[in-house]
Amino acid sequence: MAAADAVCLIVSATHGAAALGFVQAWDVTYTPTDSVVHGEGNTGPQALAPISEELEVVCTFLTATFIAPSTGVATLVLVGKDHAGASKTLTCTQMRPRAISNKAVVQGLAMWTQVFRYVGTFASFPLTAS
User: Fold this and answer.
1) Where are the beta strands (DSSP E) in 1-130?
2) Residue 59's domain is classified under what CATH number?
3) Which of 7, 46, 74, 79 makes the best surface tag, with the fewest CB within 10 Å?
4) In angstroms, rounded to a whole number, what is the distance separating the alpha carbons of residues 37 and 97?
């Protein structure tokens, strides 16, 4: 991917039909936890076997209320634009809203943050980028 393809303008973040207002940032993190398998008579790892996987998205936004953590599972769609104005979309399936925080600073800007977590089985990878 060329640097010109990088997202430089955040457009929107939606969870199902609910939109987060004036999105300022997002952080998408996939974390596999591996169990190292050692071969008989060998000291180094012979294989890595995943024992758990997590996909977490943290969105930071200015206005609009957060999405209630009791809300059901839905697709989280993050849309940005590259330097040429073309849309870049990250789609995360089966995401559930979780933690919420609000941070205000001296300059008067109050930021909301909400965490979304994948609740599927990883039978197919839940994150696509287009």
Assistant:
1) 9-15, 18-38, 45-63, 74-81, 87-104, 110-118, 127-129
2) 2.30.110
3) 46
4) 35
pTM of the model: 0.85
Could you read off the pLDDT of 33-49 as tens digits, one per residue?
988 888 788 777 777 77
Distance (Å, rounded) from C-alpha 64 to C-alpha 21?
5
Range of the domain at 113: 3-129
- 49, β-bridge pairs: 35
Q: What is the pLDDT of residues 73-120, one digit of tens each?
A: 999 999 999 888 889 999 999 999 999 999 988 777 889 999 999 999
Q: Please state the domain count of the chain.
A: 1
